[in-house]
Amino acid sequence: MALCIAFFVPFIAAALAVLFTRLFKSWAGWVLALFPAGLAVWFGAQVPAGVRGEVPSLTLPWMPDLGIDFALRLDGLSLLMALLITGLGTLVVIYAGRYLVHHEVLGRFYGWLLLFMGGMLGIVLADNTLLLFICWEVTTFSSFILIGFEHKEDAARESAQRALLITALGGQSLLVGLLLLGDVVGTLSISGTIAAADTVRDSPRYLAILLLVLGGAFTKSAQMPFHTWLPGAMTAPTPVSAYLHSATMVKAGVFLLARLSPVLGGTPPWETILTIVGTMTMVLGALLALGHTDLKLVLAYATVSVLGALVMLLGQGTAASIQAMVTFLTAHALYKGTLFLVAGSVDHETGTRDVAHLSGLRKRLPMTAAASAAASLSMMGLPPLFGFVGKELIYEACLEGPGGWPLAAAATVGFGGMVAAALRVGVQPFAGKTFRAEKPESKVHEAPPSMWVGPALLAAAGLVLGLVPWAIQPLLAMASVDIGGSQAGGLELTLWHGVTPALGLSAGSLVLGGSLFALRQPVLKGLRALNLSSHGPERFYQASLSGLIKLSSSMTRVLQNGSLHQYIVVTLATFGGLLALAVVLRLGEWPRGVSKYVLSHEVVVLVGILVSAVLAVVSRSALTSILALGALGLAEALLYVFFGAPDLAMTQVVVQTLTVILFALVFSRFPVQPHEHRFRWWTAALPLAVGGLITWIILHVASTPSHTRLADFYATQSVPAGKGLNIVNVILVDFRAFDTLGEATVLATSGLGVFLLFRTRSQRKKRQV
Amino acid sequence: MNLPNLSLADFLPLLPAIIMVVGASILLLSEVFLSTTASRAYQAVLTVVTAVAAGAMALTTMFEPPQEVMLGFGVMDPFSSFLTFVVCVGLALATLSSVSFLRKRGAERGEFYALMLFASAGMSLLAMSNELITLFVNIEVLSLSTYALTSYLRRGTRPSEAGFKYFILGAFSSAVLLYGAALLYGATGTTHLTAMAGPLSTAMSSQPGLVYAGIILVITGFAFKVAAVPFHMWTPDVYEGAPTPVTALMSVGVKAAAFAAMVRVFFMVGKGVDPQILLSLFSVLAFLTMVAGNLLAIPQRNVKRMLAYSSIAHAGYLLVGVAALFVTGPGEQFRLLGASALTGGTPLDLARAEALRGILYYLLAYTFSAVGAFTIVSVLERREDEEKGTAWDLERFSGLAQRKPGWAFAMAAFMLSLGGIPPTIGFMSKLLIFQAAVDAGLIGLTIVGVLSSAVGIYYYLRVVVYMFMRPVPEGAQALEKSWSTELALVLSTAAVVILGIIPGPVMGWLEQASSIFGQ
Known about the structure:
Strand content of chain A: under 5%
Strand order of the largest sheet of chain B: 1-2
Strand order of the largest sheet of chain A: 1-2
Number of helices of chain B: 19
Shape of chain B: globular
Structural class of chain A: mainly alpha
Distance between the termini of chain A: 75 Å
Mean pLDDT of chain A: 80
Oligomer: heterodimer
């Protein structure tokens, strides 16, 4: 039950955000932070129970008809993620309270941020694939709003839209994948699915499911080639970048892969795809990070690189790589959160976040500088910080795993890039003797406490965990077991592993990173000259979006040009094609049983019908057309007479006469413009072909014997049932009494309608006068 | 020979339609005696009351077993009752949004509401029709009323153009449908759907061509009415030209009734012929409709037109559900994850019931979302822009969140719902339909459908971007407030959000309604 409350706390906080902001003014951030802080404490308190092996869970029927339960489960992986989400969330809310203090709709900002937190927490707690998906979409859309929060800028709108399009497309792909997955195992419960993992792997749909789920996870976690939205998302306010785009939301894809790896993992396609995509993302992300001087952009690309490393580790799937993944994920959340917040403070205090214009800030921003230093050392993977612990594990996992030395080499390059990036964002602005910033030195001062407490705490956590890694070891071990099964247990974290090949690789990446940083000017120039971001995925995204729009515009122009004539042509053609298909398939033979003898007076009528039909079409005068149509109808009436249906003929004559009169009346008032008829053979051929087809079918109908004759019924029943000798009278007032009543009603109603029409008309005339 | 006997009990099932026709007659009659300046506020109230009464009447029969109506020409079952309810919901909401629309244009007259009621009565009866001629007559009842409503505002060229196109193409499609019905009659000797299965399978061996041609003609006729590609061409022009509340009623009511009739006809036909034929025909229609509908909507800056194209796309998703009705094959194919609450029958029956449930829920969901969206469109448009064609431009939505936060919130809910994004009713209905399709083994159609709906997010969310992320345009006029519009918006927003989170209450009805074709 407590779990259920925990699930809803962020949503409640989100609902209260606007009210609280009005009530508590500038203290609202601190008050609202109590919600996630309380959650963090509660989740922390669950760790001992979790270590004992208890897994709190809860299942409430929600939509039993669909197999969607409100099912929550708090295992080690969920617990780790929940702690990161709520812990970082607390600090970010406090930070945002100061960072956006003058923003006009701060309350709404808190609301969206907390809503996002709720969605994110829902993802990690859900034990039902569709509940997970719903929360997934909540994060997609709240992040869309948050990225576009500074929506007065075009760039913010554009990048919000891009992030949404890419992640929402992935979301839809995930939805199909989850539906197929549920269909294969017969349940939507995640734990149930994990229990039935073998069924999934043996299913012929396995590959489809895998690709669709990966579509969701890769877009969300910004893997190549879907990563382009993440750098764009840096237009978001910095607290959002720190929270969504480094620590939580982008990890949702990684989390999903980790969650489903007992089900989908361990197969050749999984291993191949994840390793290749992850490695590519890791290396290219690190390289792209070096091509920028904007603090946030560098951090964004470095995040892309880390996400690639995490995916790559999941792809390896060995016990060591899973343990390394869990550890590094935690380390990254701590240091990257810090660095983003630091970048925000720098931007806030100095007015720029371009590294090229910053140096020597440490004197004016001592607390921020200290936090930044600790975090960037962690990012570089130096002892005694937690980042070092994580990085060592990664190297070991690479060396031991199926990827072997090539993968370890790729990881070294990736980390080399990250070292250079860490030096650029975490050290360069603060180091140096001369002070440089947008604002003059006297105006630049330390950020207020609510803005340095967050980064300082996070950085301190990275340091403490590096010194005493056993403190977090049980939690990380639990999470590893949840991903990799019992063989992934037995995680042991130590700061010093002795002199191993991994340490050598660490040194290698430090040297590489250091030299990349030392050569930063040529590297920057080189990368800018290459202009990587405008090639490849970036261009692909632009091209496919504009291509889609072009395609649909031209489709609209061709298919939907507003011309009734064309609509009829397309309709007739499709319709005729379908009929022709039926004829070719089944009605090929000559119709049997149709009399081949035609009498002379019938021929006369036929010719009359044909002539009037042609006349109606080719005539240029509306009146002639109408008269020709009337003649056609009268000729039809004659046919009825010939074949023994005088009553039908009577009706036809009356109706035709009325129609001609009405048409003539209406057209005399219509502004009919004479227009050129251009004779095009295909406009004539199409209706002729369709008409021919229909004639052919009619001939077939005519060859089928008819079934019953209604006339006999009336003849025999008129006296006994209708008590009348005049059959016509009996039919009208007895057998078809309802029809007659209906007809009378219709007449009366149309009379009323006509009356009202005339009255409106006269009123309008009066009004105009 | 047995002579048929009609008792009063035969008329009871028709009560919803009778109520609407009586309401319409009162409106027409009273209009005659009103002076031009008299207040006509009672007309909308009467219409809403009529719609609510008819809808409530339909709900009371939701749990009754199916029974024949008027000697088997119609049938009243939970399926028809549910659709009547959907139609009445659409009618009530569209009426509420008409009030201020008509008042602004000085066009309040009784026949407008009377025509809406006549059309809805036709829709309700169409859902009950169990015989081809009855079905055709009801299609004509609703079509003729909507033709007239389309050009109700006889000002400028657009309404006339829309009405003319609608009439010409609609008449063509009705004729095609009738012709197909005649061919089916020729092949089977009956027009009663329930009696058709046996003779159809005989005719399939003796006269297969006639049956094929008949089926193709009838499908073509229905494809027109539900706006399936490539018979959709009238939709954008007509939806744009018609008065917005009429567009709302057309997009939901006509669609619901036409789908109902189509499902009923082809379910019975499918018993007589090889369902594989129907499956392939509907799959192709669904594929084309989903893809083209979504693609055509992308470049639209005109929101009303965009909604028209989107209604085509939605018809495509519904057609996926229809296609799922005709799957056959080995029992193992059906895993039926979504059918846990449906009971009785073989896996095949259950899979079909699931598909039917998806279609019905989708129709309800679309009713709330689309009527709501058209209501917002109608309050933002201005008469003087209509001729310029900018009355429905995206620019109208700029900064709506600052001018009218409530409306912007409602519109955002409708857009998310139409885009099938949780937690809205639109997501639930999309889930139900595609879950049914997956359970029936239509994997390809599901993938195409869900991915093409992702394209929809682009054009739906663009409206949201304009509302929330653009500044209020300079010189924007004050927006009028009217109780009826607000009521319509509150009701549809509440339904969109609440039924998206707790679909429970409606699900009970749906299980009833979807089980009827099982046996």
